[in-house]
Design goal:
Helix content is 15%, strand content 35%. By secondary structure, it is an alpha+beta fold. The strands form five sheets. Strands 1, 8, 9, 10, 11, 13, 14, 16, 17, 21 and 22 form an eleven-stranded antiparallel beta sheet that branches. Strands 6, 7, 12, 15, 18, 19 and 20 form a seven-stranded antiparallel beta sheet that branches. α6 runs parallel beside α7. The N terminus is likely disordered.
Amino acid sequence: MNRRRTTLVVVCAIVAVAGCGGSGRSTRLARVGRDTPSRATPPVVGAYVTYHAPSRVFTVGNGSLARRIQIADDGMGVATLSLRSLPTGVETLAGAQHDFAVSIGGKSYTTGNRSLEYVRHDTASDGRGAQALRLYFRPVTVGGRDAAPFEVAAIYEVAKDTPVMQTWLEARNLGDVPLIVEDAATQLVTVTPDAAYAWRRGGRPATIALPIVGGADHGLVWLSASTARHGPLIIGIASSAPGPLKRIAADRAGRVAVGMDPRGGGIWAQPGQTVALPSAYVWVSVGPLVAQAAREWMDSIDLARRSIDAAPHVDVISVANADLDADWLEAQDVNAVVCVPYAWQAAWDADDQAERVFAATGAIVASGRRPGLLVPAAWLPDGGALAADETLALRTAAGGRVAASWWGSSGTMASLSSDYRELALRSLVALVDDLGLDAVLLDGPVTASVGAGDKPDNRLHAGWDSWNGLLRLVSNLKRERPDIHIGVSGDTYRQSDGFDVALHPTSFLWQRGRSAAYDGFWRTVASAPATAGGPQGN
């Protein structure tokens, strides 16, 4: 996301400087009670960032909610004082609290343990009305003896006209050796929740028990709490970490952590590089029932989706077998998108499937339906030109390749952090144009565990690189061809339920089934019955 930086004009700076004499101000954070009048009256319509110099308090908000953030007087810490629903004045948080935790270079840092020192701030806009506050910090001490120096930025962004606030960290490596960034989380302590809900397939919220220690299947969570006069307070929580790396935790006391699963192996920042960690979303509403709040949340996300997604609505997507059966094709909905399996990776060798695919997509168009492809996301066929390129392969910790098969053909797994990703993008764009495709469904594995047994507690090999590479492939394909539908197999994404804001703006998750269905994020894709000819799905 490109952000144009603008300088905050602090009218009261002279007052702040004049107040620095004497013994100095207290470094303790001000207490804010639930009945304290809001000081976050919106100065303008839309999103805004303001600064009150004497108290060193920033306010980030819009007409729906406001977050007050205070820098400690000595710069050794930052905390959110309040996150308030403006239409009702209802406070969301249980009191002043610190916002971020992260491990950088093997050492843990938070915005509240005096390990990070505030150095400066600025603001930014995304060009669509959202506003962001960026607070920059330097470590008081770096990690281990060989750890690189760094700078970390905490970003608070509010949408123009929806009650959604997004927060994330960015770490910049200022040294000359690689720097590992791990265990990043946004932390909140909300008012005590009465109940919790999670988004489930079918587009419905389902009751879940507290405490929550969730991941992919808890990708979108609501906490519900009672208010005295305004009905239930609904707090929506989501993480933009890829599903398998997602971590969302909440307990009965309202303690919330949104971040990355430590099994992902962290993110490496190379010398001079800045890495942005996945963001946390907080959505605040007072009054509606959970089902209504869920619909409103989805609508607010869909606003972002419509700005990049030009694909026409489609109710039915089907997957054909390798040999397209004419009778099965005629039985499909007349408006369906019918996807043909095709390993484009084999086209770099003797591609004996190209003629079949061209004939099949032509038959689909002739039938009045729309063509699509089912393709492996990260696969290198054995013995082919791509497999011979050592730089494209995903490697285990021991340096070996990772075996993978697709539709009966053996091969190895490609690395989505290598040049393979750009090769895949260019190949898929060409296929969309040459075949007039309406949909691309991605399938097959994209990463593997370091250990031999793929146990749940194993750290995922190249976890962040692989999953981030998949997201970049999907988003870049949507950016270049916004009028196509893009799906990622639930098996590929290692997710069987739940919602995922990392994928939703550009694509959907899909699974095979007897009949087609779509709930706004999950698709059940109707699959052709097995035939005697040609390779079949995994």
